[in-house]
Amino acid sequence: MAPCGVCGNECNDASIIKCTICEQVFHLHCVKNDNEEKIKRSTRDWKCGTCKNKSSNQGSVKSNVSTTTDPLTKDFLIEVMEGFKKDVFSEMSSMRAEVNELSTSVQYVSNMLDTSNVLMEEIKKKFAELQNENLALKASNQSLSQEVVSLRERMRSLEQYTRVNNIEISGIPETKGENINDLLTDVGAALGMEVNDSDVAAAHRVPSYRADRVPAIIVQFTARRFKEQWIAKFRQKKSLTARDINQRFPAQRVFVNDHLSPENKQFLSKLKDKGRELDYKFVWCRDGKFFAKKAEGQPAKKINTYVDIDKLN
């Protein structure tokens, strides 16, 4: 006989029971609780404790499998699809909002670009107008500049013309209580010229713009020929000193020239500076007209305007 599955003793009597699963035999008194179960059910269904536990575990596994597979039901799939659809619709709504926002931004940029283009066209048009206006102003300014230069030259000529009968005597010392008419008679005697009262319209000293220079004597004759005679006599004399005029005066140079206007004096000064810069040997003024000559034997150049001075070479 087989041993009891609980006590291990041989089962040699009729008080035994056999497991329908593992076919292990047991004493009835060793499986008392199971024996009570046997009374309730047929011995064909009896299972030992070990097999019952296995069956219970297998049932639990089946239960778990059933629980695990429950979500794969139609309702579950519908629920999942509904959730997915909601998520997709939510994403689409979000994307639609973003697209609308982007479209609004693009439209705004487009509108701003259109406005900028219109503004740019207006600026181009205004710039073209300003360019044309600027060209017109330049032309007008050039014309006015030329007119100013022309007027300046005319004014210089007119100022000089009012002195056409005048001479300027410089280098004679000034004395207290001097008589200009008597002094003029002494200058004429030194040059070999007779001075008549009817020949002289006016004679007086004019202060120099330089404080270190003695005021020159300006003589206005009644006729241009008298002025020309005095200047011709002075050039023949070549050298005239104050002592030649009066023995009490120092032996300093005296000059008799055309009476130049202040503007022409500046003009002659600039011409002399330019002549020195370019090594011109002769620069002079005669009858209110200006000349320059680089060397003996070369032709004299007539200088009429400041532009001519600048072009001198």
Topology:
Layout: E1 16-18, E2 25-27, H1 32-40, H2 49-69, H3 74-161, E3 166-170, H4 180-191, E4 200-206, E5 216-221, H5 224-237, H6 242-245, E6 255-258, H7 262-277, E7 282-286, E8 289-293, E9 301-303, H8 306-311
Antiparallel strand pairs: 1-2, 3-5, 3-6, 4-5, 7-8, 8-9
Summarize the entry for a quick read:
The protein is α+β, with helices and mostly antiparallel strands. The chain has eight helices and nine strands.
Q: In sequence order, what are the helices and strands, one letter per element?
A: EEHHHEHEEHHEHEEEH
Please count the helical segments: 8
Please state roughly what percent of the residues sit in beta strands, choosing from under 5%, 5-15%, 15-25%, 25-35%, 35-45% or over 45%: 5-15%
What's the N-to-C terminus distance? 154 Å
Approximate helicity band: 40-55%
Unreliable stretches:
65-70
User: What is the count of distinct domains?
Assistant: 4
Mind telling me which CATH architecture of the largest domain this is? 2-Layer Sandwich
Number of strands: 9
Reading off the top of the CATH hierarchy, the class of the largest domain is best stated as Alpha Beta
* CATH homologous superfamily placement of the largest domain: L1 transposable element, RRM domain
CATH topology of the largest domain: Alpha-Beta Plaits
Provide the residue-averaged pLDDT.
86
Q: Can you summarize the main beta sheet?
A: 4 strands, antiparallel
